[in-house]
Fold each of these.
Amino acid sequence: MTVAVQHLRLPAVHLLLAAPACQPLVAEYGREQTVEALRALLADLRGALLAGGTADTSEPAVLAALAARLAAANRSTMRRLFNLTGTVLHTNLGRALLPDVAVQAVADALRWPMNLEWDLETGKRGDRDSLVEEHLLKLTGAEAVTIVNNNAAAVLLMLNTLAAGREVIVSRGELVEIGGAFRIPDVMTRAGAVLREVGATNRTHLKDYAEGIGAHTALLMKVHTSNYIITGFTKEVTLPELVPLARERGIPIAVDLGSGTLVDLEQYGLPHETTVRETIEGGADLVTFSGDKLLGGPQCGIIAGRKDLVAAIKNNPLKRALRVGKLTLAALEPVLALYHAPDLLPERLTTLRLLTRPAAAMRALAARLQAPVQCALGVAYTVNAEPVTSQIGSGALPVDVLPSFGLALRAMPGMRGNPLGVLERRLRALPVPVIGRIADDTLWLDLRCLEDGHVEEFERQLAHLAPEGPAA
Ligand SMILES: *Cc1c(COP(=O)(O)O)cnc(C)c1O
């Protein structure tokens, strides 16, 4: 009992604050925050001792605990991590990673005033869309473009501008829900438009569209069924099939492409995805697509198409609420510029580099990392280098998978509890969290997105994974 009483003699706040070891903390975090954290720490220690526990209350121990507390409280909530899920464009992990040219442009836009809405030729007020307009017209074949916050905003703005109070015809097979509560019927309602569903879930015919058109029809809309496919007894009316009907009735056609790629991915050995240009040339009056999916740029939504329709969209007061900021445009422009050299794109555009990374590269990496990871995990788990399949993600080509290689982490038979869940948590608790994927009683670490420049850091932090390591 005398021991406990002794432990309650905690160092005084003013003495701790005056200690030389405390001065760097005051310098970094400020006096107020340091004092507050110190008081809270001492209160916790007192509470622990009164409850019969033990604690090191020496000055160095208290100041070390204070430093840890302040560091934790000031650590950014936004953390970079290793995406080893195998999904390259992972919506919950931030989608496309941008190339250094874009990073540099964003840094400049943050540090310097820029010609965001300033025409440097005339010295007069300009239009922010014009900063990327020329690139996009060239890459898509469209007459005009405008940029908004994301593709959901692009669809909303397009529908509100062209179809508020009127009807939009959509096939029942294309009433898509994208993750994160983007549903075509709901967006339609919020845009003030009336959804007119035609056809059946599995089959829609041209005559369904023809019969759906009436006095109140404002728009025909096709939606890329990004995240699912309907197989079996199916019939979809393709854009070229639909165009003559639309022209005859004088009604525009809009296509929500979702991912929307600017190049033919087949030339890089990837599955074909309809390009924006093909869609425009195929007769779409307006196309909407995301900036941070296959395009590989920052989050934004791009509306491309007929000049008169884009002009109407730009005049909608909602455009002001949905417009993009300068950082987005700064990042987007250099990414679009890369597309003018399509042969160099797989090397320069991060998204495409990851998507086209050969399985042999991941196989070699898996072979290299198998032993160190096994060593860090100890005998409770087995680690094997095995083939896996990556996905593009963000709804692009959901059924096409990319051959890859990874580490298969499995618990030894007979382990109680949820050993894979425990391991998944330990990986998430690393200094740079590692996110894998659990399937078939295996925690998979797909190595596609672990590029050479980061392997060393990945390996170094394995020390924290060991059962006796700091993170255990
Ligand atoms: C992804 C997607 C959207 C939403 O795009 P965001 O850029 O995430 O807002 C809309 N429609 C389709 C078909 C999509 O695939």
Amino acid sequence: MVDNNTITVTSPLMPDFDEFVKELKQIWVSKWITNNGDFHKKLETALAEYLKVPYLSLFTNGTIPLLIALQVLKIKGEVITTPYSFVATTHSIWWNGCDPVFVDIDPATGNIDPQKIEAAITPRTTAIMPVHVYGIPCNIMAIKEIADRHGLKVIYDAAHAFGVELKGESILTAGNLSTISFHATKVYNTIEGGAIIMRDAEMKKEIDFLKNFGFADEVTIVGPGINGKLDEIRAAYGLLNLNHVNVAIETRHKIADAYRKALKPIEGITFFEDIPDVKHNYGYFPILVDRENYGISRDELYLKMRRQNILGRRYFYPLINTIGTYRHHPSAARENLPNAYQMSESILCLPIHQDMSDLDFQRVIDCIIK
Ligand SMILES: *Cc1c(COP(=O)(O)O)cnc(C)c1O
């Protein structure tokens, strides 16, 4: 819980309470509380339609989909990925017994730099796992071209990319598979939740088995599956939340525009502009703090905001390559990742969400200006 005076970086999108209670009543009456119930089926259909994707499989969170995507494609050996992400991206590679290989990012987008991928490919490489950071699309054409040339699979961690479109088409259909998170902190949430997006029905079937321990029917277990199922209560919550997500994104859009207008004149503060042909979701509003020109460092600004009860977040800091066992890999060396370090040390995500008041917005701006 946070007090009324605190401005959080995000706020969960929540359905109308009374509407939710009505759905709960149905679940109580039916006593069907999990395992592919009516709400689960309805939410899969509704989300596939909303996101403009052919098939989608719901999950209990956004991390199991990463694990299963690597499993179902039988990824072994080395997986090329980005150090500039949430830890779940690399953790999923490790949990599959594979070695993550870090490639530097493009400073224009924060995403893996396709031009640096090829140099990281070895005979052990089997896949690339890029991330659409802040929902900014990766260079999917360049990545596809490299993957095709080297016979590699591509799994997008699209956790931030809810509703993001490129030239009117969902970016969630890029690569062999894409995964998404519906965690409370994301643009759209089912409290905890997630999905894998796939292009064919056969793949959906296989993934649906894997998320239910490998059960194809009562007696047939097709392989070593896991439990990744989403329950009926969160599916019902998710269905109701889908009614509000467009308005939430519109509100975020307005706040992003207002931030850009207010921050433009400030020396030493830069931000990402909207990309033509891209429908953004405004899940984050990251700024880059240039100490030389702004006067104080990112960390000093971050702490100054905290003292005024404004909770910005340093997404993504620290870099994934600096933690745990990952830091011992040769690709984790600082010299290999200069752009990732530069961004990680200057990034600050400002509060942006559907419940943000004009007053709160002004408090954030005042704190950055003064
Ligand atoms: C949120 C997130 C995840 C994990 O999602 P959960 O639903 O929290 O398990 C994975 N990757 C990225 C980039 C994320 O931001």
